[in-house]
Amino acid sequence: MNIGVDAAALGMSNAVTAHTADVNSGYWNPAGLLKVEDKQIALMHASYFANIAQYDYAAFAMPIDQRSAFGISVIRFGVDDILNTTQLIDSEGNIDYNRISLFSAADYGVTLSYARSLPLDGLNYGINAKVIRRIIGDFANSWGFGFDIGLQYQTKNDWQIGLMLRDITTTYNVWQIDEEEFQTIKDAVPGENQELPEITEITAPKAQLGFAKKFTIRYDYTIQAAVNLNMQFAQTNDIISSEIVSIDPAVGFEAGYIDLVYLRAGVGNFQNLREIDNSTRVGFQPNIGLGFKYKGIQVDYALTDIGDQSAALYSNIFSLKVDLGIFRR
Known about the structure:
Elements: H1 7-11, H2 25-28, E1 40-48, E2 53-65, E3 68-84, E4 101-117, E5 123-136, E6 140-154, E7 160-166, E8 171-177, H3 179-188, E9 200-203, E10 206-217, E11 221-232, E12 240-241, E13 246-257, E14 261-274, E15 280-294, E16 297-304, E17 315-323
Antiparallel strand pairs: 1-2, 1-17, 2-3, 3-4, 4-5, 5-6, 6-7, 6-8, 7-10, 8-9, 10-11, 11-13, 12-13, 13-14, 14-15, 15-16, 16-17
């Protein structure tokens, strides 16, 4: 749930909290769903670890009335066809390759979003209700639930401000472990007395504060500039770190031509990294992206972590967004 969605946003290093305004707002800031004028769908696919892991996303959003909107999104990150060799050796000590089976380890996230405008002109809020499902073959599975709250405000001089509070109530995942299947793992390696792991996972609250503004140049050209401050309420290896809060800044730009072609770039994920020789350096993640939009259909591409500058995942990402209103015109 922390990787991000939409190649357009990823190309700007996720610095979209303040100005997100489409179907993908259900992930970045649900308050932005109020900018959706008609029904929209979005799809995205990315591969990680040399195509071993697959990351997929689909979303739908629509306005309810002039003051409210609704959205739903589904995310899956999974590794499929993992070899289960716990039964490779039979009771007589013989190796039998026919005893090898396959399983998947996958995480699912389903988010229901609701957005509404407030009486103060330019101020909107949104709420996410999230269901997290994690499955590791027949060995274990878990359910989790959490909530997000987002705000967006646009000033009279067109500055945009956004605040996203993720997992505001703390998200809990409770695991159910099949002890019979776990026993096959425990007994697969002689002498390894593995204990059952903890059955509760906790995702602590996080905050994202964003600022953005769009500049128009000679009518045809636009530049969207955005800044995000991604905050965790613990001491981490973020470039700004304390016992109270750690902050990872991100900056993104989008240059557009007649609302048809877009060029994006961003840098973020600034981390203090420790090398093998115990020295430290500042890692960062530069991203670039391209976009094309025509009659309500938008195709975007992002290349993340150019030059492998950070400890983050590198990937080529493609996404599609469709305004369903084009089919009624």
